[in-house]
Amino acid sequence: MRLFAGRSRDFSARPSVEVEGGRLELRPLRMADEHRFMALRVINTDWLAPWDATTPENPAPRNSSAGFKDMARTLIRGAQAGTHLPWLIWFTPVGEQPLLIGQLTVGPIIGGSARTTSLGYWLDERYAGRGLMTFAVALAADHLFFERGLHRVEITVRPENVASLRVVEKLGFREEGMRPRFLHIDGDWRDHRSFALTQEEIGDGLVARCRGSQSGIG
């Protein structure tokens, strides 16, 4: 494991893994991704609406060019400061071109005596249920534990989000409890279940855990 690099300005890491039917890769978010990103968001508007982050001042998701630019600038500044890792999820089917299928964001990365962070993610509905998000989360967590030297990774999930709950359960994230009215989602303050793993709990890593699973990965 590398020494803690939570404040590293190197945010160019592109973790990848071979999965059934192709290759999955996490690529850093770029301003140039706007067209593909917005097209994917439009296709998935209804699918993502119940889980989209909002604010009391703006209770609708920011699915616009201006919203993308604001998000991207904020996350890229965070990446440059070493507090965030904004990734887009790409899947390359065998013999085909890479496809943008989702987003996974790490942050804020907290150093010092905590060495902890949180993950948030979403996936194109057309690729749900194939294990791709499970592997994407595993890739991100392994990078954070083994390359960045973090000690703890947390994921919070709305109790109603069955698909996301499957991801954390299959990766062995430990439930820590309910956080009432934790985040503003879909126009209101929503309860979330909190899950986490520490470095001592991951063994050979979460990608290896995926590979060794005897059940289907959702």
Automatic annotation (TrEMBL):
<keyword id="KW-0012">Acyltransferase</keyword>
<protein>
    <submittedName>
        <fullName>Ribosomal-protein-alanine N-acetyltransferase</fullName>
        <ecNumber>2.3.1.267</ecNumber>
    </submittedName>
</protein>
<dbReference type="GO" id="GO:0008999">
    <property type="term" value="F:protein-N-terminal-alanine acetyltransferase activity"/>
</dbReference>
<dbReference type="Pfam" id="PF13302">
    <property type="entry name" value="Acetyltransf_3"/>
</dbReference>
<keyword id="KW-0808">Transferase</keyword>
<comment type="similarity">
    <text>Belongs to the acetyltransferase family. RimJ subfamily.</text>
</comment>
<dbReference type="InterPro" id="IPR016181">
    <property type="entry name" value="Acyl_CoA_acyltransferase"/>
</dbReference>
<feature type="domain" description="N-acetyltransferase">
    <location>
        <begin position="24"/>
        <end position="200"/>
    </location>
</feature>
<dbReference type="InterPro" id="IPR051531">
    <property type="entry name" value="N-acetyltransferase"/>
</dbReference>
<dbReference type="InterPro" id="IPR000182">
    <property type="entry name" value="GNAT_dom"/>
</dbReference>
